[in-house]
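Rotation project, supervised by the postdoc (A.L.). Task for the rotation student: set up a whole-complex structure prediction and record inputs and outputs verbatim in this book. Inputs entered:
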Amino acid sequence: MPSVAEVKKRHESRLMKMRGVVGVGIGQKDGKDTIRIYVEKDHPKIRAALPQTLEEVPVEVVVAGTFKAL
Amino acid sequence: MGKPEDAKLVGECQLLGLEREGIESSTNPNVVGVGIGRRNVRGFSTQEVALKVYVKQKIHPLLVKDGLTIPDEVEGVPTDVEEAGEFSIWRPIPPIYQRKVRPAMGGLSIGHFAITAGTLACLVRDAGETFILSNNHVLANENRGAEGDPILQPGRFDGGKTDRDVIGRLDTFIAVDPDEVNLVDSALAKPFDERDVTPDILGIGRLRGTKEAGLDEKVMKSGRTTRVTNGTVVDASATLRVGYQTGSYLFADQLIIKGERGAFSAGGDSGSTIVSYDGKAVGLLFAGSPFFTIANKMPNVEKALDVKVV
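Outputs recorded:
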């Protein structure tokens, strides 16, 4: 099975182009690695377009707001 | 009992020196105010309304100079003397993070002369030479700065002036590129005098080297705006889009940090060193959203600038 980092790398540029997506990362949930998709706001249209798993790695959607230089 | 309002009119004239027809005017140097309020007895508020006399300092009646004793009652209204100190206009002293400090250290306000203010990260060394580390957007004004530009401590927003607060000059910056994936937002300034800087971080202490941060690692930072805060690394390999004045840029291999109690950072904290609980530099703070703070990984910063954290 490919590592989470490899899976993330393969999909991140496509994910980053999706509307409402501000970031892609790696997290953990219940002891398992996940692909995190950071979204600008919690909106059903944004959520509906996102995958639930990527190559069998579960996806976690995290509402992050927009990132700005401080 | 007389009316408190009448007593106040008389009290204002006799104690604060106001002029009113038919009332003798005098001042009491210890009195800073007169009003109407509840009478306090042995530290507790009572229902009784009294003529409040606010004094700089409450002194024992036997020690009060002749003629300056405050009467027990004015126009039949009991008086209540309360210590208020001296009133002044609200003019707080800015926190040390936003003031001029020499030797300057991590956590303090700093910035290119054309920006508002950011944070001094720490000192770094390259072949025996010492430099100040912070972000490109703090020391080099988002690629728009030129080598040799004056760097102010404190930053311009905190009153830094180009004729007296220049700590050094812009030396090197890693350009942020709108068409590429960026790893760091970092730059170096060269202090005029090495005695003007010290490797300490305000409120944290000395660093013990650099390392990679792990997922769930506890970290802290010291910054110009929110000072010392604690948080947790919730993502150690994030790819993100970050908005700047000059546009939006993609960053890869970033740390995402969540504050322990409320926000981990705010505007002006850019440039703060992210420090692990074992005292190692793990990141360089540069961005954030209402929920998260974003930092470059310190090993990537060291590699990009070819320096070592002091």
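Student's summary: Chain B has a mean pLDDT of 95.
Supervisor addendum: DSSP finds three helices and 21 strands in chain B.
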